[in-house]
Write a structure and sequence with these properties.
Elements lengths: L1 H45 L1 H7 L1
Length: 55
């Protein structure tokens, strides 16, 4: 019983980790297209002073 729960927990953890890695890959693949636009829109919205803090 305890072994089965442990195995199930490991598989769930593995699935979650794979999902996080996969989503990170998707975000990184989209980054060159969307990130610049979002970043410069953010600069216009919040002002350059606040963005300089991040850089």
């Amino acid at each position: 019983m305890n072994k089965r729960i442990k195995k199930n927990y490991q598989s769930v953890y593995f699935l979650r980790r794979m999902t996080i890695i996969y989503s990170c890959v998707i975000v990184l693949s989209w980054a060159p297209i969307t990130f610049e636009g979002l970043f410069f829109d953010g600069m216009r919205l919040f002002g350059i002073e606040r963005i300089n803090v991040f850089m």
